[in-house]
Fold:
Amino acid sequence: MEANRASFRIVLRWLPAVACMAIIFALSARTGGELDGWLPWARKLFPGLETFDPVHYVAYFALAVAFAIGFGFGRMNAWRCLLVLVLSVAYGATDEWHQSYVPGRSPDWGDLLHDGIGAAVAVAAIWLWRRARLLASSKNYSGS
Structure:
C-alpha cells in the first residue's frame, strides 16, 4: 500500500513536465499561418527585436521548472540541475526536428538557443534558491 502511494506521488510530480511537453508539442504543430496571427502582437511589446519570440523563453523556463519538480525540487543539486538543462535542450532539439514536418515551419538554431536560454535561467534560479535555502537552514541549525 505504501509503495503504491509513493509511486502515485512520483507520477504526480512528473505530470507538470508531461503537460509542458504536450503544450510545447501542440504549439509547435501549428502551421506558420496560424502563428502569424499572434506573433506580431508579441513582437510589438519588444520593438526592434523582430526575431525575438518570448514564447521560447517562457516555455522552456516552465519546462525546466517542471523537470525540477519531477526530480524533487527540494533535492536539486548540481548534477540534477545539469540534467534538467540537458533534458530541456534535448526536448527543444526534438521540437525543432518536429517542426520540420509542419507546413510553413522549419527548424531554427536560434529557436533552440532561446529554448536553452530559458531553461538555463530557470536552472540558475533553482540553483540560487536551493543554495539560499541551504544557507538559511545551516544558519538556523547553528543557532545564529
